[in-house]
Design a protein that fits this description.
The chain is of the alpha/beta class and 272 residues long. The chain has ten helices and eight strands. The protein has two domains: 158 residues, NAD(P)-binding Rossmann-like Domain (Rossmann fold), CATH 3.40.50; 94 residues, ProC C-terminal domain-like fold (Orthogonal Bundle). Helix content is 44%, strand content 14%.
Length: 272
Amino acid sequence: MTSTMGAIPPILLVGCGRMGSAMLSGWREQGLAPSVAVDPAPSAAAFAGPDMTVVADAAAIPDGFAPAAVVLAVKPQNAAATLPAYARFAGSSVFLSIMAGRTIAGIDALLGPSAAIVRAMPNTPAAVRQGVTVGCPSPGVSTSQRALCDRLLQAIGKVAWVEDEALLDPVTAVSGSGPAYVFLLAELMEQAAIEQGIPPDLARLLARQTVSGSGALLAASPEDAADLRKAVTSPGGTTAEALSVLMAPEAWPVALSQAIAAATRRSRELAG
């Protein structure tokens, strides 16, 4: 379905990995003007179509192609070798980076001082348009460039903005890494159900549907998560008994706090 806002303008997508391809799929749903993707992997050719030309490297980008945005979806460790080839678009395109740990200053050093850069941290539910992304613009990003990046990111879920780039480290720890915490919960619930004698297939169904259904209820409810938890917890009942274990001071409250602090610390180390 094409957006009532009109087609998304030409985009240069650098990297067709999991997140890059998820973003491309979301853009196509809204209508995408003829664009270009750069990815050397043979599998990337599958993303070609009337709205997307796929090339193996920056040198093969068609002459005269003028993208409104260059989306940097390459692995962070490849940034130094990859990004300088796109410096020629600085001054005319906005650069939207979803490279974890790569700071605006670090990207600027590879693209040049005229580059307008938005650094963003999406998460993997983007694959089903249920992601959440936090963006941070460099001072050179115009109002229209920020609006374009907002639209590109809204194609894969909800978007929030911060002006303080340092906040992207705890954002990475909470939402960027957060899906792994939820998947671990489903994994452990399934294992515990099997330990209690529930057949494996049923254990998986119960764990996965309980996690996904609870997430859907949380998303649809105006109530705080704490209030929803209390609503399902009858005094002296089974839920209260389970929560007395999970909410013990040495259990989930401290473990999750320590986990997010550790992930935040690691994000800062990688950015350094």
